[in-house]
Specification:
single chain, mainly alpha, 9 helices
């Protein structure tokens, strides 16, 4: 959550002088320029869009089940439509949106997501997102990223090493 945006919303209810004082204090504390309060809560809509993408896939599968259709085929076809949106969400500026996108991609087990998940696992700024990306890779059926996971398991960063090793073991590569 963007702390400055939260403070700004509270401050807007107060006086401008108080807001300017908070802005100066925040700049000194955080060492960065504050983000404008307009649009600061847009990440909630993006998070909901990720959840809606997952819901559409599972809803379609449930309808297929009720109509005696091939559920796995419907699931894969519907997931294929949603994966590009989720790959975009994996690049969102808000860590929670990226985390949820990685989680949904883990549930979909789409091979098309492997390169983006590997990138997130290795380079995302937030450890929680990196960890979820590796957990998602652990659930993938293909072995196309095993070489990358072996290399990542040797990383000096403890979380990258541990979660890459977990992904390898989960896939059956000991």
């Amino acid at each position: 959550v963007d702390a400055w945006a939260a403070v700004s919303l509270v401050v807007r209810a107060g006086t401008r002088a108080l807001g300017a004082g908070f802005k100066r204090a925040w700049s000194r504390l955080a060492g960065e320029a504050p983000v404008a309060a307009e649009g600061a809560w847009d990440w909630i809509a993006r998070l909901k869009a990720v959840q809606d993408a997952e819901d559409r896939v599972y809803r379609g599968s449930e309808l297929a089940k009720n109509q005696d259709l091939d559920v796995q085929k419907v699931f894969n076809e519907t997931a294929a439509v949603e994966v590009p949106r989720l790959l975009e969400a994996l690049k969102d500026p808000v860590w929670l949106v990226r985390l949820r996108a990685a989680s949904v991609l883990m549930n979909f087990r789409s091979p098309a997501a492997e390169p983006a998940l590997a990138e997130a696992g290795l380079h995302d700024a937030d450890a929680r997102v990196r960890q979820m990306a590796f957990m998602a890779l652990a659930e993938m059926r293909s072995s196309s990223s095993n070489a990358l996971l072996r290399q990542a398991a040797l990383s000096e960063s403890w979380d990258i090493g541990v979660f890459a090793a977990y992904a390898l073991v989960r896939r059956g590569d000991r």
